[in-house]
Amino acid sequence: MRDAVVSTGDKKTNPTVRVIGGDEYYSELNGYSMASGRDLNSLDVQSGRNVCVLGDEIAKKFFGNNPERPLEKIIKINSIPYRVIGTMESKGSTLGFSWDNVIITSYNNVRRFLNSNPNASFSIQVKVPELKLLDVAIGESEGIFRPIRGLALTEESNFIIDKSDAFVELLLTNLAFITVSAIVIGAITMIGAAVGLMNIMLVSVTERTKEIGLVKAIGGRKKSIRRQFLYESIIISLLGAAFGIILGIIVGNSFSLFLNTGFVIPWLWMVLGIIVCSITGLLAGLYPSLKASRLNPIEALRYE
To answer: What is the pTM of this model?
Structure first.
């Protein structure tokens, strides 16, 4: 597998196209489906002739949306001509790698024309019909491959066996890291929002000093004044939470429509957001409410 420049006519790609050397089973083992034409066959692999199958992104870039148009056309990979025998349906991308920006040819052809590294690594893929047979297949594969590598019984294997769930574990680890990072950023944002809200409430107390003095003069209790400012702080915080929830649902599901996934309403995160914003509003309004309740009514009434 290597990066290459693909061209046809006056069109050319960046040197980011992955050229993959496989056999007649590569597409099936890696979850590709044919959109048009045919896949590699055993004769293509054994002879190493210059034929290839185009990924969806490459096919559309050079030949448009009609999957039949590239068939039997000639493209150049690093200035070497190849005949297109098939195109694949879109597979999407994973962890920033596009599975559609690829071209598949035989491993013998890659060895002959595209592999400049004499010590390049190769992988052998094995597929089992049932999950319960996976460990058995791994054991058999290791038992077959160790003699090929010339390993004695006491020597450790000098090759690596990866299961498909290793990629899933890597993805979940990255998602967990992103989630933790988002929580940290959210916590810092909430602290900043709490400080800003507290300043707003302090300004509100200062501007309404005379009003507070009048309330206390006619018999208003400290408890009532504290509650008033606490409620105002919590309501402001909850209004921000409502706006954030609505915006998050709209933006998130807009991306889901673009990616052809389902419509999601994250009820748990919504409830957590409301709780966190309520606590933030409560803490932010605590000091301003205490300051308002402790004002001297006589001095407050004389305040201009």
So the answer is: 0.55
